Amino acid sequence: MRDTILIVDDQSSNRDALTEILKNDYKTVEAVNGIEALSVLSKSRENIAAMLLDLVMPKMNGQEVLAKMSEAKLMDDFPVMVCSGEGNLDVVEKCFAYGISDFIRKPYENDMVLQRVKKLDSLYQSRRESNDKLKKFAKVLQNQNKILEQQAKMQKNDNINLMDSLGTIVEYRNTENHQHIKRVKAFTKVLASHMMKEFPEYKLTEEQIGQITAASALHDIGKIMIPDNILFKPGKYTSEEFDYMKSHTIRGYDIIAQIADNWDKELMEFCKQIARSHHEKFDGRGYPENLKGDKIPIAAQVVSVTDCFEALISESLYKKAYTFDVAFQMILNGDCGAFNPKLMEAFRNSREEFKEIASEGGPIEDAMEEANVEV
Known about the structure:
Layout: E1 4-8, H1 12-22, E2 27-31, H2 34-44, E3 48-53, H3 62-71, E4 80-84, H4 89-98, E5 102-105, H5 110-172, H6 180-198, H7 206-215, H8 228-231, H9 239-246, H10 248-259, H11 265-277, H12 298-312, H13 324-333, H14 341-349, H15 351-358, H16 364-374
Parallel strand pairs: 1-2, 1-3, 3-4, 4-5
Helix pairs in contact: 2-3, 6-7, 6-12, 6-14, 6-15, 6-16, 7-11, 7-16, 10-11, 11-12, 12-13
């Protein structure tokens, strides 16, 4: 509790007079010079309600005390009132510049001193109470923010799990193996990480890599809108059937757009880009919009490669699986369409990591757990 006034004056008569004025309302503690005053503050600063300070004192004068207190920001806690016979305006202005609350010239009236001390004490007490309330409010907000962050994290994890579940539904209606989504995600994380490190001009971040990895699970979500007689047709598509099959990109985009309002905005943007554009080719010969070069979103470019590569090394109803080396070279040779040369360089540098994921018993699950943690 701040109930003590610190009186700093080298004249005992002045100290006695001020103590007499304040005795009915405050406790008092005295110091005969600036050094003693700073010593008192170091020991019992939290008890000081106000300081009454003389300027002309031996060893350390009042202005020197103010300079040190201002430097240590001690006057933020309690008011300092200068009580001095000094009449020089420059001195008065300098004292206020240090941060004092009041300046009373000697000789002073007893009632006036008491009234000013009480007024300043009340003002600072109100300020401290307000600051305490603000600190408590800030702490409440911090706790609420932590709760919201935890809820957001849980929601994001729920969203990712839901995305994986939707991807699995598509997977079970597809002709590829049922590890397709997991391996596409694992390959995507590796390839996107290499793009971030080797080609900073794409401005990919760790968080975005996690989002792109998660979003890759929905690259074929539009296939749930393709009739079984087309999706599972054993022979070659007619021109009309192939056009309908290609529409899974637009249909996937539309499905994601309908649920996007309730999901993370950037994550949903990656989902839409990937669903719509993962069959575009760097030379403009892809679909559905014949986008060319970097008009194709980088997220879609990355998944285009990983989806294609995973399909090559997987057995389906219509083909045997290619070996890792053959499939890897097919991608580099452009046998599956044109890809971004920078992406091909990153793909080439990802070879060993891809091989580990693709190998039988490889760390598919570990790669996916790591990807999900970073999203």
